[in-house]
């Protein structure tokens, strides 16, 4: 892992989950997303120390462990390190049983509940301009992947998008990535086009995006949502339960469903699309023989 300069005082550490770094004159730095766990945090720490940087601030774009799992290591080892996120993401981070509950629908198995240690948040960020150590950052609402995900634009006009936008590689690999709300996701796609930024960093991508490139990627993501919606509607020409609908999606697209956790990611996203299509008046449901069936209206 290396510290890669983007522009001005804005850097990032490329990894499975990209970590943003904004540096201050006194060698303190702000970290954007901390990786999956203590191991990831130690790697981030080593990169920062090798560049004479001191972790002082953490901003989490959202609560998922691959973006916040390194927080506790950094705050425990660097007293005075201050953590920020949005209001509703804070609820999930400080009450970490909430995500498995929303994901699984009850107390979840250990496969899903990977951590039982709350992540302390010091301050809630509001949308708009926020000062952190006298530097101005723009906080953007990018909900959809989670309840209250945010993007952050540094003073160098570099925007960290979290998981609000999926790279082509991610769409090809998973085909049905995790979405909490399809409607909010589509609204966030439009917000991304309006962001006053020059360079964009995704949570999971090995490249940086220019303004034109990110707008093109937004269009690809919109097309993906529309294609998935149309595929759902085509299958639902016949009534199917949620499980049977997902079975069709998995088999028709030759998707990997051998992992318990990955299956439930697909299962949750299936619910998100069913909600979206139902609310648009395109899908209805009925209960028969102990099952809820969904069908095209």
Automatic annotation (TrEMBL):
UniProt entry tagged with the keyword Protein biosynthesis: no
Domain Metallo-beta-lactamase: 16-204
Database matches in InterPro entries: Metallo-B-lactamas, NDM-1-like, RibonucZ/Hydroxyglut_hydro
Keywords: Hydrolase
Matching Pfam families: Lactamase_B
Molecular function per GO: hydrolase activity
Record protein name field: MBL fold metallo-hydrolase
Originating species: Anaerosalibacter bizertensis
């Amino acid at each position: 892992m290396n510290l890669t300069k983007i522009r001005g005082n804005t850097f990032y550490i490329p990894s499975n989950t990209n970590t943003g770094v904004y540096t201050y004159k006194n060698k303190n730095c702000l970290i954007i997303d901390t990786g999956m766990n203590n191991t990831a945090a130690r790697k981030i720490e080593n990169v920062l120390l090798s560049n004479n940087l001191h972790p002082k601030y953490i901003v989490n774009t959202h609560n998922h462990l691959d973006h916040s799992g390194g927080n506790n290591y950094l705050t425990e080892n660097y007293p005075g390190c201050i953590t920020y996120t949005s209001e509703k993401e804070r609820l999930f981070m400080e009450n970490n049983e909430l995500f498995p509950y929303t994901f699984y629908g009850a107390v979840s198995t250990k496969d899903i509940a990977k951590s039982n240690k709350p992540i302390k948040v010091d301050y809630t960020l509001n949308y708009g301009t926020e000062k952190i150590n006298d530097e101005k950052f723009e906080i953007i609402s990018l909900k959809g992947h989670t309840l209250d995900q945010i993007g952050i634009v540094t003073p160098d006009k570099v925007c960290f998008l979290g998981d609000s936008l999926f790279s082509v590689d991610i769409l090809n690999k998973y085909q049905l990535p995790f979405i909490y709300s399809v409607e909010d996701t589509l609204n966030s796609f439009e917000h991304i086009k309006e962001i006053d930024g020059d360079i964009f960093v995704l949570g999971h991508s090995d490249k940086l995006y220019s303004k034109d490139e990110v707008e093109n990627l937004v269009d690809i993501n919109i097309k993906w949502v529309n294609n998935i919606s149309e595929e759902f509607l085509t299958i639902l020409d016949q009534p199917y339960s949620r499980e049977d609908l997902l079975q069709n999606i998995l088999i028709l697209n030759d998707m990997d469903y051998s992992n318990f956790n990955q299956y439930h990611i697909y299962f949750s996203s299936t619910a998100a699309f069913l909600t979206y299509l139902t609310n648009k008046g395109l899908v209805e449901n009925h209960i028969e023989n102990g099952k809820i069936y969904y069908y095209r209206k």
